[in-house]
Automatic annotation (TrEMBL):
Name this polypeptide is given: Olfactory receptor 52I2-like
Ranges that cross the membrane: 30-53, 65-87, 107-125, 145-168, 202-226, 247-268, 280-300
Higher taxonomy: Eukaryota, Metazoa, Chordata, Craniata, Vertebrata
Single GO MF descriptor: G protein-coupled receptor activity
Keywords on record: Cell membrane, G-protein coupled receptor, Membrane, Olfaction, Receptor, Sensory transduction, Transducer, Transmembrane, Transmembrane helix
């Protein structure tokens, strides 16, 4: 009976977790806090600016700007879900986060990233229609089609993320409650469980790989068709503008996809292959760099928004 009582006690979830920040780089936490704060401020101001301009200007009520507005809102959610806590850890050492808050943060961060990859695909499709089929643009991208695409993107992210959050939150935590990460990243949390975290980790790896591979393949196909259409023209100026636009878009996408997928595969391989601080730093940059750059690349480089 005493053994049974002890077992039940240890299976209770911890009241809170403690986020370590970036293990092995504690001496750099202050400078990381300054950098993150600057990028977070730029991300918030830039994305709020984009949403406000598109919302208030009646001339920007087109599919491209609608997707950009939703992307800016998702970037705000993604950055706000994790970065303030990360800055608090680096600045003040306040690393405590409650059990429920940890899994809420996990859900919003990973759902937002899944929505963002879908929006990048939708925007690539929008660019393809605008350049390759301009006469059919308004007939193809009707408000109903845009709403349907947005709902599919959001539902896909929820369908993927809900089982993952459920699997990790229902693992028994009976040993350490120190998360070797700057935020509640699901693999870092799952590793603290007394049970085998392999099912949730495998689900995350396979699901992320399928979603990202499919989206990247369609995005690459869209931009390939765009470039082929533009280079079939004889206008040198149009070719240079297309190269500049597509190049900047692909650069931002690379900064979004590469750190994200690298952090997932590195966490799967383990710290014996890649240093733990490298894994955590990549995951942190994955949450803050795209929200900082998206308003500049997709927004301020657009002539209508600048005007």
């Amino acid at each position: 009976m005493m053994l049974g009582l002890h077992y039940n006690h240890t299976m209770e979830p911890p009241a809170s977790f403690f986020l370590m920040g970036i293990p092995g780089l504690q001496f750099s936490h202050f400078w990381l806090a300054i950098s993150l704060s600057a990028m977070y401020t730029m991300a918030l101001l830039g994305n709020i600016f984009i949403v406000t301009v598109i919302w208030m200007d009646s001339t920007l009520q087109e599919p491209m700007y609608w997707f950009l507005c939703v992307l800016a809102a998702v970037d705000i959610v993604m950055a706000f879900s994790a970065v303030p806590k990360m800055v608090g850890i680096f600045c003040t050492g306040d690393s405590s986060i409650s059990f429920n808050a940890c899994f809420t943060q996990m859900y919003f961060v990973h759902t937002a990233t899944a929505v963002e990859t879908g929006l990048l695909l939708a925007m690539a499709f929008d660019h393809y229609i605008a350049i390759c089929k301009p006469l059919h643009y308004k007939r193809i991208l009707t408000p109903q089609v845009m709403l349907g695409m947005s709902m599919v993107i959001i539902v896909r992210a929820i369908i993927f993320m809900t089982p993952l959050s459920w699997m990790v939150s229902h693992l028994p935590f009976c040993d350490s409650n120190v998360i070797l990460h700057s935020y509640c990243e699901h693999i870092a949390v799952a590793k603290l469980a007394c049970a085998n975290p392999m099912p949730s980790s495998l689900y995350s790896l396979i699901g992320s790989s399928i979603i990202v591979s499919a989206d990247v393949a369609f995005i690459a196909a869209s931009y390939n068709l765009i470039l082929r259409a533009v280079f079939s023209l004889s206008l040198k100026k149009a070719q240079l503008e297309a190269l500049s636009t597509c190049g900047s878009h692909m650069g931002v996408m690379a900064l979004y996809y590469l750190p994200g997928m690298a952090s997932i595969y590195m966490a799967w391989l383990g710290k014996d292959i890649v240093p733990l601080h490298t894994q955590v730093l990549l995951a942190d940059l994955y949450l803050v760099i795209p929200p900082t750059l998206n308003p500049i690349i997709y927004g301020l480089r657009t002539k209508q928004i600048r005007e």
